[in-house]
Amino acid sequence: MQESTANKVAAYATSSFTEHLQRERPELLPFTRALPTGAAVTAPLQVPHATTIVAMGYAGGVLMAGDRRATMGNVIASRHIEKVFPADRFSVLGIAGTAGIAIDLTRLFQVELEHYEKIEGTLLSLEGKANRLGAMIRGNLPLAMQGLAVVPLFAGFDTGANAGRLFSYDVTGGRYEEHEHHTVGSGSVFARGALKKLWRPNLTAAEALAVAVEALYDAADDDSATGGPDTVRQLWPVVYTVDSTGTRRVPDEELGAAARAVIEARTIAGREA
């Protein structure tokens, strides 16, 4: 009896928390929820969407930043949403797309990495983390086909290579390693233009922060779904850096100073024009 129980436990043991849920409680996975169908559905589902995320490499690590606005159609659904989260000690995740599903996927991914570390006794490699995130996004494809897509950015410090790395995805879970910088979300076209002009190799962390704020400011200037730095409400982007010491959330004091520097420089330039 004891041997049978041990064999049964071994058969079900897995370092993947997502696989465990798929086997035991599939209804708890965010991408297994069914949308209503039939004549009762007369209009597209209106849900909050999160944009815009920018990420870039700098000397010794990577930085990821997200604005604070979520939209629902032509309405601002939230001015306080957070779109960048630590995945574990050496990686961060930025969400764009359907906000509710994206946040649930983020929480599941965080538990996935924590579960792996507890079962295996070691951190999953950065490459392994990127692959597992791709599998989760692929699981959401049926909902993405119905307009509820999630397209994140993933970045982290590769302790083996001793370097920061950045990964983008498509709605099918396709994973692509990006070099230098990348953006996602409705304001990404405008943010990418700023990054192309302002980014350069071997930026310091402080310089990378200034570039990220500038890129988000440019996106907000042309994209109504992106919220710029709000000096009235004291709302700043959410920014994380990741290097050999781990993840770090940039304090509001630093963000406020960087945002005010951008605003002041543009005000002076406007007066001199």
Write up this protein.
The structure is a single chain. This protein has 273 residues and is of the alpha+beta class. It has one domain (47-272): Aminohydrolase, N-terminal nucleophile (Ntn) domain (Glutamine Phosphoribosylpyrophosphate, subunit 1, domain 1, 4-Layer Sandwich). The chain has 8 helices and 14 strands. A hairpin with a 2-residue loop joins strand 6 (84-88) and strand 7 (91-94). Helix 6 (188-198) runs antiparallel to helix 7 and helix 7 packs across helix 8 (252-272). It is globular. It starts with a helix and ends with a helix. The model is unreliable at 1-12 (pLDDT under 50).
Nutshell version of this structure?
With 273 residues, the chain is of the alpha+beta class.
Strands, count: 14
- Kindly report the name of the CATH homologous superfamily: Aminohydrolase, N-terminal nucleophile (Ntn) domain
Helix content estimate: 25-40%
Strand content: 15-25%
Largest sheet: 5 strands, antiparallel
Count of helical stretches: 8
CATH class: Alpha Beta
For this structure, the CATH topology is Glutamine Phosphoribosylpyrophosphate, subunit 1, domain 1
Q: Could you tell me the radius of gyration in angstroms?
A: 20 Å
Instruction: State the end-to-end distance.
Output: 84 Å
Which whole number gives the mean pLDDT?
A: 86
Coarse shape: globular
Number of domains: 1
CATH architecture: 4-Layer Sandwich
Stretches where pLDDT is under 50 for at least 5 consecutive residues are 1-12
